[in-house]
Design goal:
The complex is a heterodimer of chains A (444) and B (568).
Chain A lengths: L1 H37 L2 H6 L11 H12 L14 H15 L2 H30 L17 H17 L1 H8 L4 H16 L3 H15 L6 H11 L3 H22 L7 H12 L10 H6 L6 H12 L4 H7 L4 H15 L5 H8 L15 H24 L5 H35 L4 E2 L2 E7 L1
Antiparallel strand pairs in A: 1-2
Helix pairs in contact in A: 1-5, 1-6, 5-6, 5-8, 7-17, 8-9, 9-11, 10-11, 10-16, 14-16, 16-17, 16-19, 18-19
Chain B lengths: L2 H9 L15 E10 L4 E13 L15 H10 L1 E10 L4 H4 L9 E8 L6 H16 L11 E2 L22 E6 L6 H9 L15 H4 L4 E12 L7 E14 H4 L6 H5 L3 E2 L7 E7 L1 H5 L4 E3 L4 E7 L2 E9 L4 E2 L2 E3 L14 E8 L5 E10 L5 E9 L5 E10 L2 E2 L4 E5 L8 E9 L3 E10 L16 E3 L3 E6 L26 E6 L3 E3 L9 H24 L2 E5 L5 H19 L1
The chains are: A mainly alpha (444), B alpha+beta (568).
Pfam families (chain B): Gpi16
Protein name (chain B): GPI transamidase component PIG-T
InterPro entries (chain B): PIG-T (IPR007245)
Chain lengths: 444, 568
Amino acid sequence: MITKKSQKLLKSSHSLIIVCKVSFLLILAALLRYIIMVSKYQNIIANHVEISTPLSSWKRVLEGTFLFSKNINPYEGDLLHETPLALHFYKTVLQFVFKNVNVMFIAFDLGTSVLLYFATKKYAKKFREEHAEIEKFPKEVRDTLPNQDYENKVPLYVLMSVLFNPFSFLGCVGYSTVGIHNFFMSMFIFGMVDSNFLISSLALAICSSVSLYPVILILPLITYFVKVHKSYLQALLTLLSFITFLTLITCYNSNFGKDFSFVRNVYGCILTVPDLQPNIGLFWYFFTEMFDHFRELFIYSFQINATILYLIPLTITFRNRPFVLTVALLFLIGIFKSYPCLSDLGFVLSFLPTFMYLFSYCQQGFVISVILLMTSCLAPVLWHLWIYSASANANFYFGVTLAYAIAQIFLVTDVLFAHTKWEFYLKHGKDIKIDGEDTKLSLE
Amino acid sequence: MTLHQTLIYLLIAHLQFQSISTSDEDTFSEELLLKPLFSEQLYAHFQFATHWNIEPKNENYQHSHLFPRAVGEIVGRYNVQELHISLTGGLWRYETWGYPVIDAAPGAEVWAWFKPSTTNVDKNWKLLANSLSGLLCASFNFVDISNTVSPDFSFRPRGVVDWSNNLNNTFLRYATLPREIVCTENLTPLKKLLPCGSKAGIASLLNSGHIHNTKYHSTGLHLRHVCSSESCDSVALELQLSVSLVYDYAILGTRNWSFKKLFGHGLNGKCPLATKSNIYVDLSSSKTLNNFELSPEPDQIITSIRGGQVSDYALFNIPSKFLNVGVKYPEDFTLTVNIPPPIHANQYLTGYGQERGGIVTEIYNNHWSSLEIVILQNIAWYVPVYLHTLTITSGGQKLEPKILKYSPGKQREKPYYIEIALKLPARSITTVSIDFDYVFLKWQEYPPDANHGFYIGSAVVSAYLPLAKNYTGLPQDSATIFGSFNASRSGYLVQIRTENMVITLPTPDFSMPYNVICLACTVVALAFGPLHNITTKRLTPKKKNEEKLMQKVKKKLVNFLKKKTKTE
């Protein structure tokens, strides 16, 4: 009786400590963000092309709402690349809920972190339970299995990496609307892990309607319901509700079929890349320097590369690990989308703690972190040299964006390779001998 | 009167004052106005007007008498109601020079009204621009919908229109080419449009070598429909061709000018086809200050009282013999203080670097009462402006525009069009500013000299002045300078053009398209390779100490060599 009570007490005190920790982190993050936001650095950060792409710039949202207030259709011009629903949402939320643009961006960022906290908590628990029967696995890999410690640490690490990784932080401070899109993306992850098909499909429909690329995530979502939640019915419902929500959103955006001018500005811009303002992606310089008669060919191939090229093979390979699949696809979208910004990278990086068990198998951590650090420092410097001092040229900045993309590619392939290796070891053990000789693994 | 009414009053004209011709025949008049400007310049304005009473049957505009057939055909083919073109080099300095007879923007400027029966205005506009390009040897072929706007207020028809009830700016097109360089090749085709060419009459003074030495030179072609009789039961076509020149005394070497100094030679008789051939010299500056001597003696002195301004003009009828008008200033010269005209404007760029900038237009109201104006800005698509950053301040206070018309631009398709109606406070400087971003273009969209920069055209400030101070413009009912004498009206329309601006857009490296394509594709391939391996291949254990290829080769080589030595 006493032990039970004390256990309960211990548990409640434990959860109290966690609540304290989380709220302390949240308050600290909010404070830090607010301090930078009200300082003179906010404008400088918001003006950086790494943060404000044509698709994520808050200035363009302001222009759009201003034009709407003057009864001018902003989609007649091409400054605005947000959907009418998104514009309406920002305006309403800002006007009636937050009153202050700083508060709004901080709130959405904190919301993202909390949602991901709960999502990864659920995921970590489930993941640990899957590997609970240690006896089933070979001896030498048992210490790499997710344990209680993993379950406790992962959500907290994820929370911290959303709140304090510099990429998300700068994106939030610089009013990048991708920060708000990421809130819905984390809602999608939460709904997926929580086996809530309504939330996940709604959030995914919202994300797809604003930035198009997430539409491919419907496949991992369905896989998740089939393989993890073991429910074909829910998978079907997810698909149906996703299509319904997407139709409803498009209906709203087009003013019930009356005005499709936003399609050209939003999806047309995402797909055909007419605005060649530099960003951290691969598209801008490539299509600046492209010969006109090859433009279409390369637009098709780059967009296919960013969307469906890796979708099917990865889905087949990682069908039993849809969470890994989702994160991998998020990474690839972030690298190969037409207008990526730092918030995209910040968001996917915050999933890395869920792969804690793989870190010992990763080989390129050092190289990746050095490249990321260097490019993050060099990008603004070379930008300044090119645009303001006219002592460098476009190639310098292009070089940095290439290195940045390479770092991310190394990261995602490294994680995926480590995961395949880990799964192999779980099945076959580490010490495999052929004819009594030591072996090493290779892909054949 | 509300502002809106004023605007319409301001810009649609008094159609009742249409010019009236007495005979059914075509008429042609040639005039030259010489006006010493404040300080160191002389203004010479050539005005040629052809009036053509079109027969109603003559629908193709092909059988003309004095009227240039080339222009007539253009009008007939493209359904043009009105056409206004100017080709200008240099900038008219409103602050010191007052107002010109005809305002013109630096570079090329063209605006046209099409008849309401036109079905495809954009197509006709494009065709018209191409024809004009051939007619005047100018780059009008670069005019297309991507630099064309249809302003609501600034450019109303100047002549008679039979559809004033539903006057609709969908039939109006306005475009400027600020980069256009105007030179001899534009003057020669213009001279060919005159009935006497440059063989006889005042046009013979248009000597290219001397004209393009000037500080400002502007040629214009203005075509409109006017009433052919007082009852206005039939319309006539009126073509005004003009050449405006501003000579600088410093370039001339002396302030004692004469035809010979200005144009290289004197005048040898008039154009025999002209009904009016006059030369006027503005004497107002002579009367007040520096009494110059005119030679030969003028035939007549005309005193014109117009909108509170009294000015004297010396009139010369062109004799059949040689004429060389000249002036001689006294040795002791008095300097005066310049009194700027009621309204003038400047435009400039703000910001540094190639990322963000601003366009600022400053409008000076020197009049003692408030003035209503309309500002038109036709901003090219490569200068994306943010309307929410538009601020109008005057004397530290924010002004609200009375009317704001805006149409957002689209890359490679449509310019940004802003038209603002404002009430300028009395004696004030009003600043209109707007922010823009520098855009990044495709490498083939940059002009050959990419670092020369891209031009932003001038803003047009239209106002209806209550006084004719410093004003030499023609009244709406007249095509001749003679008609502007004693022409007091209720207001005087000025359309001030501001300076052109040049921005240097950030450039890519033009020399390495192949490298960029290769490098970017390599990065994509870097992702493709490992992902392809992970998804299509299986992990298999392999013996660790299995020989590598190099080792195998080495071993074989060693064995081979060993064998060889053995056999030897």
